[in-house]
Amino acid sequence: MPGTDRPKRVLLYSHDSFGLGHVSRCRTIANAIVEADASASVLILSGSPIIGSYEFRSGIDFVRIPGVVKNISGDYDSANLRVGVEHTMEMRTRIIRDTADIYRPDLFIVDKEPLGLRGEVLPAMKLLKRRGTPLVLGLRDVMDEPEALAAEWERKKIVPALSDLYDEIWIYGLPQLNDPMTGIAIPPSVRHKTIYTGYLKRELPLHTDTPHELLEIDGPFILVTAGGGGDGDALVDWVLRAYEADPHIPYGAVIVFGPFMSSTAREAFKERATKFHNIRTLTFTNNLGALMQRAAGVVAMGGYNTFCEILSFDKKAIIVPRTRPRLEQFIRTRAARTLGLLEMLEAERGRDPHAMATALRQLTQQGLPSDVVVPGLLDGIGNVLRLVSKQLAHPHRGPASLGAVEPGAELAQPDDEAAQSARLRI
Fold first, then answer.
1. Average pLDDT over residues 138-144
2. Is pTM, for the whole model, over 0.70?
3. Over the chain, what HEC string results?
4. Using CA atoms, how far apart are residues 411 and 126, in angstroms rounded to an integer?
5. Would you state the pLDDT for residue 68?
6. Do 122 and 405 form a contact (C-beta atoms < 8 A)?
7. I need a surface site. Which of 9, 31, 310, 330 has the fewest CB within 10 A?
8. What is the structure's pLDDT at 69?
9. Tally of CB atoms within 10 A around 280
10. For 182-230, what is each residue's pLDDT tens digit?
């Protein structure tokens, strides 16, 4: 990255209302940036309650904004504060905007949600846009099925933001697996600034302790991971029922529940697992890579983060993709299976314990992901660093007061139905 008198600053935003994928992706990118340029600083804006559990390199810090959770109706509530969600969103919006104002980044990267959760990132984006700060949207390889995503982006007025606000759009994947904007009426100008980077290769943490579960298992084992765990009960139950139906499965298992699995479910699973001498359980580890590196194979749900880890550590895998509330995992897993990168079990066909037991027995006979040649598959980090360097090469343009809002420059909140008819104006 280019050297200047002023060390470069990158700001990353991730709403992180639930799960591990977003914060893990931002952490991977942040660590790569400061490793490539020891003078760079990266600040992460995140709503994740566990962001502090991860290891970050020197030069990285984070601002934890108040958390929110999505309830069963699809609406949001405050995660911990005893205040209304509107009050929480107002706090989040102000923290994001004020952080952007004071930190004065040379590059702002927004993860997944183009306008932020309920539009919370818009004031910060407007401020930085007036200052000439490059704005980049980072998208995972799959968002949702095209019809559902098109309806969501139409409701939130996303396409005008892609046209008017963002300088580039980075897709952390390859078109050979999926084009996340298929089925959406995207103007040529947006297509021209869209770049596929390849998947983000993961490395082992530098200083994190190895989970003691590794020391308790002799011989090969299968890693079972439910990601964040909030919707991983069915996967863990299916695997345990497979061992209960076929106690002679030749491989042990390490089951990682995830920090968001309910304590009731965890305790019930732990009790069932104690009946097997070759099954170990743990709630969470910030060094899942160490477990995966040692594993003979992986059983997982198929989120973006887990998929990248499976490719990075070149592991044979059985994926049981979630199909609700989004088809994201199913679309990714189906495409990867078509290429021969992994195997898939579809829960919708019934969770027969003997079907899972058979898959576990056959897992170590599968091919490795590296047996399939997909050019550029894991080139994401190198390409992201080149893109970051290109953006940081532009001089940071001068100050704009936080209160200096140009007439007519206010952007409508995406969920404000009365304002959605107005096109975004900068």
1. 95
2. yes
3. CCCCCCCCEEEEEECCCCCCHHHHHHHHHHHHHHHHCCCCEEEEEECCCCHHHCCCCCCEEEEECCCEEECCCCCEEECCCCCCHHHHHHHHHHHHHHHHHHHCCCEEEEECCCCCHHHCCHHHHHHHHHHCCCEEEEEECCCCCHHHHHHHHHHHCHHHHHHHCCCEEEEECCCCCCCCCCCCCCCHHHHHCEEECCCCCCCCCCCCCCCHHHHHCCCCEEEEECCCCCCCHHHHHHHHHHHHHCCCCCCEEEEECCCCCCHHHHHHHHHHHCCCCCEEEECCCCCHHHHHHHCCEEEECCCHHHHHHHHHCCCCEEECCCCCCCCHHHHHHHHHHHHCCCEECCHHHCCCHHHHHHHHHHHCCCCCHHHCCCCCCCCHHHHHHHHHHHHHCCCCCCCCCCCCCCCCCCCCCCCCCCCCCCCCCC
4. 8
5. 84
6. no
7. 9
8. 77
9. 21
10. 989 999 999 999 999 999 999 887 665 666 666 677 778 999 999 888 8
pLDDT the model gives residue 279:
94
Tokens of 168: 């580039």
Least confident of 11-20, 119-128, 150-159, 193-202: 11-20
Q: Which residues lie closer than 8 Å to 358 by C-beta, 6 or more apart?
A: none
Q: Two tokens at 46?
A: 């995140």
Q: Please tell me the total number of residues recorded for the chain in this structure.
A: 426
Q: Are strands 68-70 and 279-282 parallel, antiparallel or unpaired?
A: unpaired
Structure tokens that stand for 276 in this block: 């097997």
For the ranges 13-27, 150-164, 321-335, the lowest mean pLDDT is seen at 13-27
